[in-house]
C-alpha cells in the first residue's frame, strides 16, 4: 500500500518537498535581518562611537624658539664672520655672520623642539566625519572601532 501511494502521487510529494525547502531558504535571510549583530546593535546605540577611516603622522615644529638657539647662533656666526677680511669688511662680515647665525640657530632650535602628531579621521555612527589630533606616533589603524570620551579616542573591542 505504501508503494502504491507514492507511485500514485509522485509529483505531489516532490512538489511538497520543494515547497518546504523553498520556504526554509526564503526565511533564512529574514531571520538574519531580524537578529542584528552585537556590534551593529551597539553601534546604533552609541552616538559617540565610530570607525577610523584614516591616520596621518607628521612632525610639528615648535611655534617659537626660546631664544637660546638664536643667541647661540648669533655668537657663533659673529665669531666666524670676524675671521673674514679686515677693516670695514671684517665688521660687515661679523654683523652678517651674527644675523645669519641667529636665524639659523633659531631654526635649528625649532626643529629640535618639534613634536610628533597623528591626525585621525573617524566616521561616526551618525555618518559625520570628525578629525582628532593625538600626540605621538599612530596608535590607530583604518577600520578600528573607537569611542570618543572627553574629546579623546578610546579603542573599543
From TrEMBL:
- What's the short name of a Pfam family annotated to this entry? Rick_17kDa_Anti
Q: Which domain of life is it from?
A: Bacteria
Q: Where is the signal peptide?
A: 1-34
Q: Which residues cross the membrane?
A: none
Keywords, A to Z, come to: Membrane, Signal
Compartments, as annotated in UniProt: Membrane
Under which name does UniProt file this protein? Glycine zipper 2TM domain-containing protein
Organism source for this protein?
Answer: Janthinobacterium fluminis
Amino acid at each position: 500500500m505504501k508503494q502504491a501511494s507514492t507511485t500514485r502521487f509522485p509529483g505531489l510529494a516532490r512538489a511538497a518537498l520543494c515547497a518546504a525547502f523553498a520556504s526554509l531558504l526564503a526565511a533564512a535571510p529574514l531571520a538574519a535581518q531580524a537578529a542584528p549583530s552585537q556590534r551593529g546593535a551597539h553601534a546604533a546605540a552609541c552616538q559617540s562611537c565610530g570607525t577610523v577611516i584614516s591616520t596621518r603622522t607628521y612632525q610639528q615644529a615648535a611655534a617659537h624658539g626660546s631664544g637660546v638657539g638664536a643667541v647661540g647662533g648669533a655668537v657663533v656666526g659673529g665669531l666666524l664672520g670676524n675671521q673674514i677680511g679686515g677693516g670695514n669688511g671684517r665688521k660687515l662680515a661679523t654683523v652678517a655672520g651674527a644675523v645669519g647665525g641667529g636665524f639659523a640657530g633659531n631654526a635649528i632650535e625649532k626643529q629640535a623642539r618639534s613634536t610628533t602628531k597623528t591626525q585621525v579621521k573617524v566616521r561616526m555612527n551618525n555618518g559625520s566625519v570628525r578629525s582628532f589630533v593625538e600626540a605621538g606616533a599612530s596608535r590607530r589603524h583604518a577600520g578600528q572601532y573607537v569611542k570618543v570620551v572627553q574629546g579623546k579616542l578610546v579603542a573599543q573591542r
